Amino acid sequence: MYSTSAAGVPYVLEPPSSGRPDAPLVIAWHLMDAPRTERAFAAALPLAGLDAWKLYPGLPLSGDRFPGEEAFMAQMLAEPVLNGHGRINAEAVAELPGLLDEVRAAHGIGGGPVALVGGSAGAGVAGGAVVGKVVQARAAVLISPLLQLRPVVDLLARHFGVDYTWTPESTAVADRMDLVWRAHEFGSTAVRCIVGGDDDLDAFLYPAGRLRDMLREQGVRADLRVVNDMGHALADEPGLEPAPQTEAARQVDAMTVEFLAQELELA
Q1: Angle, nearest 10°, between helix axes 168-176 and 86-107?
Q2: What is the C-alpha to C-alpha distance for residues 53 and 207, in angstroms, rounded to an integer?
């Protein structure tokens, strides 16, 4: 396993067990909740048994790029859309092509099929890369996915006891990140959503079901898996370093591998 950086992005890379340069490439972005770094996410979601290159990029404003708890919370509370979720999403999608070019060249990764995986905010990045045609992804697995920003901001506002006033600028960001509204832009990418049964209904469970339904209406292979007794996170706090895999994460990993093995023709 390699843990380094490219194009200014920290990442973890696990080569395929077969050693094939042309093995599929799976790109997996972590959550902003636990596990909240690329190293911790690679431990929580190792994609066990999948013969593929497994690339775990770090998100902006996290891990080695985290500005510190006080500064981060000040930014998020002041403007959670423009300073927080909108910025993280836009920067992560924008930096993907440069990261891929450098990682492929450094490690000799060939031109095998690509799949995307993400948890929460990372799922928003994975979906953004699909609808933005940043990569041609054969499949995507979206875990505890941030598919619509508005209900997530409402949830955070209630949690922190603040009111959020939407502006034309933040509304434009929410529109860009609305993957349910943009379902028609997924093309032929097969999608599996995995959501915890104890997660928030309006912010996560309902949008995941709606995305599945809309993709199916368009003839796209899409399904939804619900993990009982799982909330939003995939690891115990603080979620910064690799830790023993939780039972919920083990189930999510198995569901992810099952879907990707089928879609990448590795089964």
Answers
A1: 40
A2: 30
